[in-house]
Amino acid sequence: MAEAANTTGTWQPAARRREGPGRAWRRFVRHRPAVVGAAVIVMYLLAALFADVLAPYDPLDMGAGSRLTGPDIAHWFGTDEFGRDVLSRVIYGARIAFVVGVLSATGAAVVGMFIGVLGGYFGGLLDRGVTMLIDLVFAFPTILLAVAVAAFLTGGGMPPSVPVIIALCVVQAPHFARVARGATLAIKAQPFVEAAQVLGGTHPRIIRSHIAPNVVAPLLVQFALSFSYAILAESSLSFLGVGHPPPAPSWGAMLTGAYGYVERAPWAAFFPGMAITLLILGFNILGDGLRDFFDPTRR
Amino acid sequence: MSRYIAQKLISLLLVQFGISVVVFYMIRLVPGDAVDFIYGLYMSSGRIEEIRALWGLDRPIVVQYVEWIGRVLQLDFGRSIVSGYPIADEIFARLPVTLHLSFMAGTWSVIFGVTLGVIASRYPNGKVDGLVTTTGILGLAMPHFWLATLLVLVFAVYLNILPSVGYTSLFEDPIESTRSLMLPSLALGTTMAAAVMRMARSAMLDVLGHDYIRTARAKGVRERRVFSRHALRNAFIPVLTLIGTETGKLLGGSLIIEQIFAIPGIGQYAVEAVLSRDYPVLQATMIVIAGSYVIINTLADLGYGLLDPRVRYD
To answer: Phi first, then psi: what are they for A250, rounded to 5°?
Structure first.
C-alpha cells in the first residue's frame, strides 16, 4: 500500500520551481522495471485503441472459425464454444479493461482526493466524518462490496459498464481519500502553508496552489494500483455474472464461458487469463517503480 | 493494555453498526424497489401494495431499520425469497465450510510465504531471491479464477489426482475433506502467500540492516541464531499485521473460489443471492461476511498491540 509518509521531505511550496520534465523523465527511464511495466501497458493501450485494425476477426462473429479449434495459423489463440476467434476477443477485451480502469480509477481519484484533502485540511468534525466514511468502506471485503453495489445498480437500463464503474469507484475512493488525507496533514504542518495563511491566503487558494500539487505525487502511485485493481475486479465481477454480460468480450466473462469446457479447449480459458495477468503485472511493476521514483530516500 | 483493548472493542461495535446501516440502506439503491423488481412483472399494483405492507416496506425507514436490526441481533435473518427457507439455518450450515476453506488457504500462505520470504532475505539478490521475488509479483497479478482454472487443468484433468468440484465435511472424512479443499485453498491462498512473502522478505531485510544485528554478529552470535532470535522476532510484527488483514480478504476471495469449485460455503450463497436477486439473503450474507472480516481485523490489531508495545501508546 502506498503510504503518504514515503514522500516526506518532497513537499514543495508553490513558488519554488519543481524539477523540470526533462530531468524527471531521465530519472524515470533509469528505473528499468518501471519502464518495462509502462511498456506493457502502452502495448495493451495500443491494442485497445486499434482493436478494429489489429483483431483478425469480429469478436462477436460466431462464424469466424469452427467451434473449439486449437491454436493454429488462422486462429492464434484458437476458437471458443461458438466458433468466435479468441485472439480477437482478447484484443477487444482490452477496450473494456481500459474503459473501466480509466473511468473508475479517475472517478475514485477525484472523489477520494476531494474528500481526503477537505478532511485533512479542515480537521475537526469534518475530518471525523471523512475518517468514519473511509473506515466504513474498508469494513467490507472489496469484492463483496463491489459485487453488491454492481448487483443493486444493474437493471436500471444503464449500459452494463456503468454499474461496474460506479461499484469500483465506491470501493476505491477511500484508498485515495486516505492517502490524500495523510499527505494533506503532513503538508499542512509545513512552514510554507503557515506562511501562506499568515499572508492572508484564502482556504480555497491555499488548497489549490499549495496543498493539491503536493498531494498529486502520492496519489499517482495509488492511481496505478487502483487501475490494476479495477481491471482485476472488473474481470472478477464479469466472471461472477454481475459485470459485462455475454457476448461482450470481457476477459472475465470469457473465462466463465471457457471454464465449462476447459478440458476440451484449455486455450479458450488460458489466453484471457494470461491477458489479465500480464497487464496487472505491468501496472504493479509500474506502481512499485513510481513509489521508488517519488521516494526521496531511494534516490 | 486494557484501555487499548477497550478502544478497539468500541470501534468494532461502531463499525458493526455502520455495516448494518450500509447493508440495510443499500437495498434502496435498486432502481424502482425490490418488490417491483421481483413481482412487478406479473402482479397487479394492488397486490404489490399488499406485499409491501406485508414486508413492512410502507412504514418509515428508521422504523424498518430498528425492527430489522432487532431481528438480526436475535440471529433471525428472515426467509429466502427464492427458496422460502430460513436464512439463518443456511448460514450456520455454510459458515463453517467457508472458515475451513479460509483456514486452509491461510495456512498455506503463512507456511510458504514466511519460509520463502525469510530464505530470500538470507541471500538477497541471489537465485532463490530472484525466484521468490518473481513468484511474488506474479502471484499478486494472477486472478483467483484463472489460477483455479490452471490448477484444475493440471491436477484434476491431466494428472487426475485431486477432485475438481465439491466439498466433503471434515467430520465425515478428514482425508477426503482435505483433498476436496486442496485446489480451492491453493487457488485462494496464492495472493495472500505472495503478499506475505514480499512482506516477510522486505521486513527481514529491513531488520537485518539495524545496528543491533551488527552488534549481535560482532559479539559472535551464530548466524542462525541472529536470524531466528534477533531478526525474525522483530520482522514478524509487520508480517503478522499483514497476515491479519490478508486473512480477512480470504473471505472476499471465497466468493469466487466457492463458485468455481461448487463449495457450499457462504461466499457461494452470497453469489447465488446476487444472481437470483434474493435481497434478504444478500443482506444476511453481507452482514455475516463483513462482520467476520471486521472481527478478524480487530483480532489482528489486538495481536499487533500485544506484540509491539509502542502501538498501544498512540
So the answer is: -80, 140
**pLDDT tens figures, A259-291:** 888 888 888 889 999 999 999 999 888 888 877
Residues A151-175, buried b or exposed e (16+ Cβ, 10 A)?
A: bbbbeeeeebbebbbbbbbbbbbbb
* Cell matching residue A69: 479449434
**Predicted ipTM?**
0.83
- CA gap B163, B177 in Å, rounded: 10
> What phi and psi, each to the nearest 5 degrees, are found at residue A242?
-115, 10
Interface of B with A in 125-184 (CB under 8 A): 137-138, 140-146, 149-150, 152-153, 157
- Choose the closest CB to A153 out of B29, B140, B256: B29
Angle at A231 between CA A233 and CA A129, to 5 degrees: 60
| DSSP-derived 3-state class of residue A79 | strand
What pTM did the predictor assign? 0.84
Among B98, B145, B206, which would you mutate to test the A interface (most chain A Cβ atoms within 10 Å of its Cβ)?
B145
Q: If 0-12 CB within 10 Å is exposed, 13-18 middle and 19+ buried, where does residue B27 land?
A: middle
Residues in chain A within 8 Å Cβ distance of B146: 255, 269, 272-274, 276-277
Q: Which of B140, B145, B149 sits opposite A284 (nearest CB)?
A: B140
pLDDT on residue A42: 93
d(CA A74, CA A78): 8
The one-letter amino acid code at A208 reads: R
Contact list in A for residue B249 (CB cut-off 8 A) is 141-142
DSSP tag of A85: B
List the one residue out of A280, A226, A232, A272 whose CA is nearest residue A102. A226
* Residue at grid coordinates 479493461: A97
